[in-house]
Design a protein that fits this description.
Blueprint lengths: L2 E5 L4 H13 L3 E6 L7 H12 L5 H5 L2 E5 L11 H10 L2 E4 L1
Parallel strand pairs: 1-2, 1-4, 2-3
């Protein structure tokens, strides 16, 4: 099973790549997103995708997305070391946007 790790999923290019991976594959996707004071990482991704993915299968597609709150500028991507190890053993593709 493919497992994609994607950064930049709330930006223009990243959101479209996420949409295409969801619509054209059966891969599970983990996205690294910074939270903002006014909005959590999870809500940022869901809102971004809600504009791009429509139709009856939308919820099924979104179930394959795991949102990790983190930051590329922080050591270890700003996520727990155990999470980094788990990703290292399961991710088959890394896309940095």
């Amino acid at each position: 099973m493919e497992h994609v790790f994607l950064t930049g999923a709330t930006g223009f290019v990243g959101a479209r790549l996420l949409q295409k991976w969801l619509e054209r594959s059966s891969a599970n996707l983990t996205v690294l997103v910074r939270s903002r004071r006014e909005m959590s990482a999870e809500i940022r991704v869901r809102e971004s995708l809600s504009r791009l993915i429509t139709g009856t299968n939308r919820n099924d597609l979104l179930r394959r997305v795991t949102v990790l709150e983190g930051d590329l500028g922080r050591p270890g991507l700003g996520i727990a070391e155990t999470e980094c190890r788990a990703l290292a053993t399961s991710v088959t593709h890394i896309i940095h946007c």
